Backbone:
């Protein structure tokens, strides 16, 4: 069956659209969230669920739903390099390696779940997709990537495949910000461009105006999926 990824910056309506697709599409289907923020995961390892519970119990903020926009990540890295001592850098490096190891374990589990549903003849519908979220980050091959991020990028290339259909829900950053009020307009613009750049690299992608009424958006998405099923 098919892998279908629905992408879009925060505020584009991914969760609303994928929830309705799961309820309305006339095909056997499994919906999965594949973002970095484990709190929203539809499938997660018991250890991840335990960490999620602990964060909530101790009042910590939810993890971000994707890697930081590439500009923000670069600026953060430059600040750290100027101010951190060698010991702090080693400690941060060890922490980063541990986080990446945990992320890879979680992603491997989610990919195993995906393949099981595909083997059962179901369409797998993804809300976000790791290859898209990390297209401009761990998969970009920047010379200044840390070793742990290079390992993560290599894992993603070897473990995950291009979706059979990529649906990008697109809107101007100002519209996205007005809808959800999270992040900044600049960050949303960066994320939007990252998804557009990723969509340009895949064989089958559709760009849908997310500012249209929801029923019109749903009709266009469902038509694209019907066409993908018939291919």
Residues:
């Amino acid at each position: 069956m098919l892998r279908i990824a629905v992408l879009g910056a925060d505020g584009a309506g991914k969760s609303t659209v994928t929830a309705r697709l799961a309820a309305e599409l006339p095909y056997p289907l499994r919906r999965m969230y594949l973002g970095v923020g484990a709190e929203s995961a539809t499938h997660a390892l018991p250890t991840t669920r335990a960490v999620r519970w602990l964060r909530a119990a101790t009042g910590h903020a939810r993890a971000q739903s994707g890697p930081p926009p590439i500009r923000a990540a670069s600026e953060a890295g430059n600040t750290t390099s100027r101010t951190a001592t060698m010991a702090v850098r080693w400690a941060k490096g060890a922490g980063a390696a541990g986080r990446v190891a945990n992320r890879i374990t979680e992603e491997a589990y989610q990919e195993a779940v995906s393949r099981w549903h595909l083997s059962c003849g179901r369409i797998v519908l993804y809300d976000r997709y790791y290859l898209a979220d990390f297209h401009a980050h761990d998969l970009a091959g920047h010379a200044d990537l840390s070793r742990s991020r290079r390992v993560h990028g290599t894992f993603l290339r070897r473990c995950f495949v291009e979706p059979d259909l990529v649906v990008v829900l697109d809107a101007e950053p100002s519209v996205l910000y007005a809808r959800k009020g999270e992040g900044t307009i600049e960050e949303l613009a960066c994320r939007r461009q990252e998804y557009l750049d990723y969509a340009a690299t895949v064989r089958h992608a559709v760009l849908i105006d997310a500012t249209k009424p929801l029923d019109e958006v749903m009709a266009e998405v469902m038509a694209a999926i019907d066409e993908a099923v018939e291919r």
Q: What stands out?
A: Residues 72-76 have pLDDT under 50 and may be disordered. Residues 3-230 form a domain with the Rossmann fold fold (CATH 3.40.50.300).
